[in-house]
Design a protein that fits this description.
Order of helices and strands: HHHHHH
CATH architecture: Up-down Bundle
Structural class: mainly alpha
Radius of gyration: 14 Å
Largest sheet: none
Amino acid sequence: MSDTTANNEGFEEGRRHIESFRAPAAIRDELTRFITQAGSLVWTRPGLEPSQRSLTTIAVLVARGNLGPLREHIEIGLGNGLSQTEITEAIIQCSIYAGFPQTVAAMEVAAEVFDAPS
């Protein structure tokens, strides 16, 4: 898979997640635009490949225990070309810095994503 293909797949996966999140109707469209614009400023910067940005994001979400967004970013990471092994190794790496409870919970989320039908 080329970097461009992975980038497009990851971007589209991210866009779908943002557009489907729940928010009050009165602010949903504006909030969606804000998140899309802010995220685009970070995700399109030079210096890191989309897969590297995904791996960084996954590690931060594991460390913070943010399991809802973690599920989405594991899916985005796969779309950006990360392998299941790379994702699980990043989660394991977090164990000594973020703690084993976050790591175990994150592995459960990863297993659910990996085992879900494509």
